[in-house]
C-alpha cells in the first residue's frame, strides 16, 4: 500500500496516501478535521475550523504575485462508506486499504475515497509546495458533502475573500464543469403495528453484486436498482407462494444507486422450494435484461427461523405498490442537449421493520420547476400508500457560464499543455459550487479533477496517468491568474 506514496507526482500522492490513513466517513469527521489543522500548522499556513465544521486555510502570495486575484481551492473532507458484504472494514476506525493495479489505484473491498480525497490532496499539495507561483490562496474543505452538502449550506457569509473558485470535485480528466444540477432529498415514512405471524416457514432473500454507482454521474448508465428488482420478486412471492413481508433492508447511501437488498419473508414451509425457483428465475431475468451491464448478479435464498411478527397485509401490499410505482432513473434529458440528463430520481434506501417503513430518494434536476414536479410526483405516489413525505437538503443548480474568465484560462492552459481543446460541460451530479455561489455571487467558478471511475461504489478507482497532467494544469493556472 505504501507504494502509493511514491507515485508521480509524489506531492499529491503522498498526501492522498495520508488521507487514506484517516477514517472520514460522512458524519464522523473529527479525526480528519484535526488532521487538516495539524497539516496546516506543519506547513505554516493559517487555518481554522469555521462554525459550520469546515476547515479554512489561507496562504500568502509568492513574491511578486501579491496583486493577483485570490483563488479558492475547494473540496470536501468526507467520503462515501460503501463496502462489499463480506468486508469487516469499520469506516469509523480503519484506514482504507488502497493498492496499485496497473494504471489504477483501488481499495480492497471498499470505496477508495478519491472522491474527494484527490481534491483535498491537491489543495494540500499547493499549500505544501515550495516552487509554485501563485497569488493569495484560500482553501475550503467542507464537511458532509456526500450526505447533504451540510458544510456548504452552513458556510458563513463573509468568511471567504476569494475572487475565483476552483472546485476540485469533478471526476473525468479533460472535462471541465461549468454548471451542475440541484437536488433535494425525499423521505417517505409510515408507522404501523406489526401483526402476529402464524406461518411456519421463513427465508432471507438476498440480491447483491449489482454495479450500483453514482446517482448523478451514472443514473443514465442503465444499471439495475436492487430495490426495484427485489420488489418484482417480493410481489410474485406474495401472489404465488403465500409469502408475507417481515423486513426489508436495501441500499445504504442516498446518492448511490443501490447494489444490494435483503428481505425476510414468512411463508408456508412447504412453499420454500417454489420460492427458491422464483428467485432463480428472477436472477436469470436480471441477467438477460441487463446483459452487458450487470455481470455478477447474486440472488439467493437462505432459510431462517420463523419470525414472531410480520407486516400487516394491507400495509404490505400498499408498500410494494409504492415501490413499484415510485419513479426511479432518468425522467427527462435536457431538450437542448439530449445527451445530458436534466431530471432524475434514485430510489436509494428502503428500510422496513416491525413498526416502520422508510424510503429515501434523491431527486436531481438542473431546472427548479422540474425538480419540484418530480417531488410532487413522488408525494402523489407515496400518499396513495398512506405514507408521509418530507423533503430536506434542498439545493439549487449552478447555471452554466461557459465563457467566464476562469473557464477561458483553463481552456487556454489545457490546450497549450495537451494540444487539444477540453470538453466544457454541465454535470447532472450535484456540486457545492451552486451553494457557495448563492452566498458569494461574485465568484468566477470552474470545476475539474483527475479521472475517477465508479465513485460511491466498491469499484471506485483513480487513474494514475491522469494525475501528472492534472497537476501541471493546476500549477500553470495558478501562475497565470490575472491581476485584481
Automatic annotation (TrEMBL):
Domain of life: Bacteria
Domain Peptidase M20 dimerisation: 206-291
Keywords, alphabetical: Hydrolase
Annotated protein name in UniProt: Aminoacyl-histidine dipeptidase
Amino acid at each position: 500500500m505504501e507504494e502509493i506514496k511514491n507515485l508521480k507526482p509524489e506531492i499529491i500522492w503522498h498526501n492522498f496516501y495520508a488521507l487514506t490513513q484517516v477514517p472520514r466517513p460522512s458524519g464522523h469527521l473529527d479525526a480528519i478535521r484535526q488532521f487538516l489543522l495539524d497539516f496546516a500548522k506543519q506547513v505554516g499556513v493559517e487555518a481554522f475550523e469555521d462554525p459550520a465544521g469546515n476547515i479554512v486555510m489561507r496562504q500568502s502570495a509568492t513574491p511578486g504575485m501579491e496583486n493577483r486575484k485570490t483563488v479558492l481551492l475547494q473540496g470536501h473532507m468526507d467520503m462515501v462508506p460503501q463496502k462489499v458484504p463480506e468486508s469487516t472494514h469499520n469506516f469509523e476506525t480503519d484506514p482504507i486499504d488502497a493498492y496499485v493495479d496497473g494504471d489504477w489505484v483501488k481499495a480492497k473491498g471498499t470505496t477508495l475515497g478519491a472522491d474527494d480525497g484527490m481534491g483535498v490532496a491537491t489543495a494540500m499539495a499547493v499549500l505544501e509546495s515550495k516552487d509554485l507561483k501563485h497569488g493569495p490562496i484560500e482553501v475550503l474543505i467542507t464537511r458532509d458533502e456526500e450526505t447533504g452538502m451540510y458544510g456548504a449550506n452552513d458556510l458563513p457569509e463573509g468568511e471567504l475573500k476569494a475572487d475565483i473558485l476552483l472546485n476540485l470535485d469533478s471526476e473525468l480528466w479533460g472535462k471541465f464543469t461549468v454548471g451542475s444540477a440541484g437536488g433535494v432529498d425525499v423521505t417517505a415514512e409510515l408507522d404501523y403495528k406489526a401483526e402476529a405471524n402464524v406461518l411456519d416457514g421463513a427465508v432471507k432473500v438476498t440480491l447483491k453484486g449489482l454495479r450500483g454507482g453514482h446517482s448523478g454521474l451514472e443514473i443514465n448508465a442503465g444499471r439495475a436498482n436492487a430495490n426495484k428488482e427485489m420488489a418484482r420478486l417480493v410481489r410474485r412471492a406474495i401472489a404465488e407462494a403465500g409469502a408475507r413481508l417481515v423486513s426489508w433492508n436495501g441500499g445504504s447511501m442516498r446518492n448511490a444507486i443501490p447494489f444490494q437488498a435483503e428481505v425476510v419473508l414468512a411463508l408456508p414451509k412447504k412453499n420454500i422450494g417454489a420460492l427458491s425457483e422464483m428467485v432463480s428465475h428472477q436472477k436469470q431475468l436480471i441477467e438477460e435484461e441487463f446483459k452487458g451491464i450487470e455481470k455478477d448478479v447474486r440472488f439467493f435464498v437462505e432459510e431462517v427461523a420463523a419470525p414472531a411478527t410480520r407486516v400487516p397485509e394491507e400495509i404490505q401490499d400498499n408498500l410494494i405498490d409504492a415501490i413499484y410505482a415510485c419513479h426511479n432513473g432518468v425522467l427527462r434529458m435536457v431538450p437542448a442537449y439530449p445527451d445530458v440528463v436534466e431530471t432524475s430520481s434514485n430510489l436509494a434506501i428502503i428500510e422496513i421493520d416491525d413498526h416502520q417503513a422508510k424510503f429515501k430518494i434523491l431527486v436531481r434536476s438542473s431546472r427548479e420547476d422540474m425538480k419540484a414536479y418530480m417531488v410532487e410526483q413522488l408525494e402523489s405516489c407515496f400518499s396513495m400508500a398512506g405514507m408521509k413525505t418530507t423533503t430536506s437538503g434542498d439545493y439549487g443548480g449552478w447555471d452554466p457560464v461557459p465563457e467566464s474568465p476562469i473557464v477561458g484560462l483553463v481552456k487556454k492552459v489545457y490546450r497549450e499543455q495537451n494540444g487539444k481543446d477540453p470538453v466544457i460541460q454541465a454535470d447532472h451530479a450535484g456540486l457545492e459550487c451552486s451553494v457557495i455561489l448563492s452566498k458569494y455571487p461574485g465568484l468566477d467558478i470552474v470545476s475539474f479533477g483527475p479521472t475517477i471511475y465508479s465513485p460511491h461504489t466498491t469499484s471506485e478507482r483513480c487513474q494514475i496517468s491522469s494525475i501528472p497532467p492534472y497537476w501541471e494544469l493546476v500549477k500553470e493556472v495558478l501562475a497565470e491568474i490575472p491581476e485584481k
